[in-house]
Amino acid sequence: MKIIKFGGSSIANYENIQKVFSIVEQKSGKEAFALVFSAFGGVTEQLLQCANIAQQSEESYHTILQELEKRHLEIAKKLVPVQQQSTALTFVKVRFNELGDLFHGIYLIKECSNRTMDYVLSFGERLSNFILAAGLQAKGISTTYVDARDLVKTDGRFGHAKVNFKSTNKLIQSYFEKHEGIKVITGFIGSTDKGETTTVGRSGSDYTASIFAAALGAEQVEIWTDVSGVMTADPRLVYTAFTIPQLSYNEAMELSHFGAKVVFPATMQPAMKEDIPIYIKNTFKPEEEGTRISKESGEGKIIKGISSMDNISILNVQGPGLVEVVGVSQRFFGTLANNGINIILISQASSEHSICVAIASKDASRAKSVIEEEFRYEIQSGEMAEIEVVPDMAVIAVVGENMQHNPGASGRMFQALGRNNVNVAAIAQGSSELNISAVITQADLQKALNALHEAFFLSDYKVLHVFLVGVGLIGKALTKMINNQLGKLQEENMLDIQIHGMANSRYMKFHEDGFDLATVGPPDENDEPMDMGKFIGTMTEMNFSNSVFVDCTASQDVADIYEQILDSKVGIVTPNKKANSGPLDTYKKLKKLAGQRGVRFFYETNVAAGLPVINTLQDLMLSGDHVHRIEAVLSGSMNYIFSELEKGMPFSEVVAQAKEKGYTEPDPRDDLSGMDVARKILILGREAGQDLHFEDVDIQSMVPEDCEDAASVPEFFEKLQKHDGHFQQLLDEAKAKGEKLRFMATLENGKAKVGLNSLDSEHPFYTLKGSDNMILFTTERYNDFPMIVRGPGAGADVTAAGVFADIIRLGNYSR
Ligand SMILES: NC(=O)c1ccc[n+]([C@@H]2O[C@H](COP(=O)([O-])OP(=O)(O)OC[C@H]3O[C@@H](n4cnc5c(N)ncnc54)[C@H](O)[C@@H]3O)[C@@H](O)[C@H]2O)c1
Ligand SMILES: N[C@@H](CCO)C(=O)O
Ligand code: NA
């Protein structure tokens, strides 16, 4: 025997009822079962509403009542063929006549007691079950309508009556022995010994199903609803939440305490006592497995689910007056209890110096004043500090029996919270190890839920939330590249990348769910004007776990906010050299801060675009090598310019080409002046552990003096033409010696030099072509022959690819 219960939403209308009937038809004849139905969806609320209106001596309840009657008659007419309708229709009409009289009475005496209310509400279940029994009968399924008031006996606590199991069980058992057919049982209602109608409280129909299951020793209870079981977290806050296949009763109780309101603990009690499993199934997706709740927790992850509760306040008492004074906590908790204030979580450290409880925010100010009153002498004398209330908090809890005697769950929980910059205000864990709860700021709730969900359930799957500033050459190439590769990353590497913010120097835009990368373009005049403070503000507000700030500008202003970003535990990836080549203090501070905050700051593309230069150097340093000398061609554009020049084109034209190809800085003078290379050698020196300042770099500029103060890039190009002859001459001189011009950087003995050199064919840089970069590291270990890195070191694709790789690397470290 199974007890199968369908809730109000499953039978809210004719279409839904058809789904229910097809589920019942499939079971019919194959297995023994009884059915329990709630009232049709929304009916209980409307009956309540009618009673409340009538109580206020208003007549408008008539309209609702008429609608209700019409709705019940229509469903009955649709479910039962005309020839068989009369019994059902008569039942409905008689019930509504009774209800009419009842509300008229309430209307006259302006009062609706709990007792009357229970009677009023009982009509909902009686009507739905009678009609549905008739409907099934009409489909050839033999049914018996059961008014549970005849079988479920309760005390007289109207509204939430207590069941007398002894007499109830007897009545149920003998009724089932004597009656044939599939019983269709009204949920929610019972009666006292005197025959007064009662209701058994919230989620009462589930309770009814559980009561019948226990009385009959049923093999299982099925609760059919509009969700596919108990989920790992609230799906409205955690999009990746999924159905938990199996739960123990205890776990279900812990989870339903807050968050997952699919089952109420009390309704499980009778089934639980008899060890009868409860299945949560979805009427609208019957093929889905749903959740099985039984004695066994079952195999699986270390936790079963994450629940949460918001609108919480912390109440904190502290002071020397608490230490080793017996009875303080009794007074504290007694006072709260006497004032009907429910305590959600308690935490007291063994120093006894403070006690902290979490309570509902609606109780907070009352709690504060009653505690202040109770302890007024202690507060006056300073034995106790002022009572502190912290509002706008939330409780988050991980739940699961597998945590018992299994180290690591709390570690993983708090690590995930910490890494995502979620501050924990208080912690509680019972020694049953079934639940670890933490109090956090309410604003962090969604982030915290997602961080925990990822940490416990999707440890193989990560989502990086990107905020991109600079959607120029590199930024655009990057978004395109991510879009092309995303499917593969998701499938094979369990990595998802979502871009939520995009800005250039003029505009910015945001997308809560992440932009569609296939179609997204840079922000424009239809978007918000760019405001760096606002951009960071929105990023902080969105408050995603695993956020990454990607700077694809060449801007000092953007580099200036890295400190703030790292401080808020958001990682940074950037090809922008400004931060690392600025003051030495800043460089050191950013690295240290990233370390302290446990976030990553990656900038492989600061030097030689995607070529593995920074990482290589960092590996050498980490493994204890010492750098003696670095000799390098570090500018893709400069190498392109001086090697293309050999082909006979004028200098200014070759520079324009280098810009067109995307090799130069936004302003090519940054390349020609040697500034860009100087920044790079400075960064390499610093990475090699040297305290280098910009002044330590000797720079030979290639920008003719009169071009330096050209107001714009086009003006600069115009002026540059006049100097084509000068560069031709340099080239000719080199050619005459059988040499080539290379713009190089060297670092040795704490001194860096940047400039143009004429090199003979023996030199490794002689053969470089196009945008090639080449770096020779002479170190303690690579001494006789240097370690060499060579390849194209500028251009949109090789740079974007390097930025992309850094983002992915950051993903590997995240969580
Ligand atoms: N081009 C290459 O081969 C290469 C190689 C390695 C590194 N880089 C670096 O990549 C970065 C970007 O280069 P690019 O060629 O894409 O430049 P770009 O001029 O094409 O794009 C720069 C973008 O940054 C935006 N921007 C500038 N200042 C801003 C500010 N204050 N706030 C918001 N947005 C701002 C601009 O609007 C533009 O969208 C630079 O730091 C460059 O040094 C480039
Ligand atoms: N403008 C740089 C690319 C960015 O590092 C170069 O020419 O190498
Ligand atoms: Na690089």
TrEMBL record:
PROSITE patterns xrefs: ACT, ASPARTOKINASE, HOMOSER_DHGENASE
Gene Ontology MF terms in the entry: aspartate kinase activity; ATP binding; homoserine dehydrogenase activity; metal ion binding; NADP binding
EC number: 1.1.1.3, 2.7.2.4
InterPro entries attached to this UniProt entry: AceGlu_kinase-like_sf, ACT-like_dom_sf, ACT_Aspartokinase, ACT_dom, AK-HD, AK-HSDH_N, Asp/Glu/Uridylate_kinase, Asp/hSer_DH_NAD-bd
ACT domain boundaries: 398-471
Catalytic activity: L-homoserine + NAD(+) = L-aspartate 4-semialdehyde + NADH + H(+); L-homoserine + NADP(+) = L-aspartate 4-semialdehyde + NADPH + H(+); L-aspartate + ATP = 4-phospho-L-aspartate + ADP
Pathway involvement of the protein, from the record: Amino-acid biosynthesis; L-lysine biosynthesis via DAP pathway; (S)-tetrahydrodipicolinate from L-aspartate: step 1/4; Amino-acid biosynthesis; L-methionine biosynthesis via de novo pathway; L-homoserine from L-aspartate: step 3/3; Amino-acid biosynthesis; L-methionine biosynthesis via de novo pathway; L-homoserine from L-aspartate: step 1/3; Amino-acid biosynthesis; L-threonine biosynthesis; L-threonine from L-aspartate: step 3/5
GO biological process, one term: lysine biosynthetic process via diaminopimelate
Cofactor(s) it depends on: a metal cation
Keywords: Amino-acid biosynthesis, ATP-binding, Kinase, Lysine biosynthesis, Metal-binding, Methionine biosynthesis, Multifunctional enzyme, NAD, NADP, Nucleotide-binding, Oxidoreductase, Sodium, Threonine biosynthesis, Transferase
Entry function: Bifunctional aspartate kinase and homoserine dehydrogenase that catalyzes the first and the third steps toward the synthesis of lysine, methionine and threonine from aspartate.
Annotated family: In the N-terminal section; belongs to the aspartokinase family.
Subunit architecture: Homotetramer.
NCBIfam families assigned to the protein according to its UniProt record, in alphabetical order: asp_kinases, PRK09436.1, PRK09466.1
UniProt protein name: Bifunctional aspartate kinase/homoserine dehydrogenase I
Organism (species): Echinicola soli
